[in-house]
Design brief:
Layout: E1 3-7, E2 10-13, E3 18-25, E4 34-40, E5 47-52, E6 59-61, E7 69-74, E8 79-84, E9 93-100, E10 115-116, E11 120-125
Parallel strand pairs: 2-11
Antiparallel strand pairs: 1-3, 3-8, 4-5, 4-9, 5-6, 7-8, 9-10, 9-11
């Protein structure tokens, strides 16, 4: 079992930045999991944002955030981060972190994830 707790969401003006954190705990080894960030806006389906492999060697981003968001992980702290820069109103959503044992491009698919956090709200005003 893996428990995930996100933090760092909030209200920011367009063009601003936020850093989300996701702390993992439980009877497992955090470093064996690929970690991903997803988001869900009101009335929309949950969508992939970014993912990083267990080793950190592979990183994936959705086209909508590429160049603006950066995912990183600190296995010593059992934490994954999402640095979000140049935020836009369309980035407004609940952001979730998730953990999966899947490898490679499978980490882009929400259905491959075994564990999810409760989500943190990000609101970007225009």
């Amino acid at each position: 079992q893996v428990q995930l707790v996100e933090s760092g969401g909030g209200l920011v003006q367009a063009g601003g930045s936020l850093r989300l954190s996701c702390a993992a705990s439980g009877r497992t080894t955090f470093s064996t999991y690929a970690m991903g960030w997803f988001r869900q806006a009101p009335g929309k389906e949950r969508e992939f944002v970014a993912a990083k492999s267990w080793s950190g060697g592979n990183t994936y981003y959705s086209d909508s955030v590429k160049g603006r968001f950066t995912i990183s992980r600190d296995n010593a702290k059992n934490t994954v981060y999402l640095q979000m820069n140049s935020l836009k109103p369309e980035d407004t959503a609940v952001y979730y972190c998730a953990a999966t044992l899947a490898a490679g491009a499978a980490a882009l698919r929400a259905g491959q994830y075994d564990y999810w956090g409760q989500g943190t709200q990000v609101t970007v005003s225009s």
